[in-house]
Amino acid sequence: GVEAGCQKVFEISPEIAPKVWLRVGRALQERGAYEEALAFYQALSQQFPNLSSIYENIGDIYCFYLKDNAKARDAYQATLDALPKDETLSPAQRASRQGYLVEDIESLTTS
C-alpha cells in the first residue's frame, strides 16, 4: 500500500530532508486526501520517529477533518513525547509547542 511505497522512497532517497517530506504530507492534506496523508505520515514516522511535526499533523487531521478526538489526543500525546528528541526545533520552539499541545490535549479530553 501507500506506507510500503513511501518506505521504499525514503530508503532510496535518504538525503532528502525530513522537512521536505512534511511538505508532501501537507500537500496531501490540502487536497483532502486525508487517509493517504495519514498513511504517508505513518510511514514517515518510521523513518523519522523524533520528528514531532509528523504526529502533530496526524493529530490535526483527526481533530479538524476526521473528527476523531481520541485519535487526535493520542497523536498530540505522541507529539509531546517526541518533542524532547526533535532536533529540528529550537528549545524555545519546543517550549511553545509543548504549551499549546498540553492545552489541546486537555480540551480534547474534556470535550
Describe this protein with a few key phrases.
111 residues, mainly alpha, 77% helix, globular
- Name the shape in a single word: globular
**Proportion of residues in β-strands:** under 5%
Order of helix and strand elements from N to C terminus: HHHHHH
Mean pLDDT: 89
Count the E strands.
0
First-to-last CA distance: 34 Å
Low-confidence region ranges: none
Could you give a short account of the major beta sheet? none
In short:
This protein is mainly α and 111 residues long. It has helices at 2-12, 18-30, 34-47, 52-65, 69-82, 91-110. Helix 2 (18-30) packs parallel to helix 4.
Report on this model:
The protein has helices at 2-12, 18-30, 34-47, 52-65, 69-82, 91-110. The chain is built from six helices and no strands. It is globular, with a radius of gyration of 14 Å. The mean pLDDT is 89.
Secondary-structure topology with pairs:
Elements lengths: L1 H11 L5 H13 L3 H14 L4 H14 L3 H14 L8 H20 L1
Helix pairs in contact: 1-3, 2-3, 2-4, 3-4, 4-5, 5-6
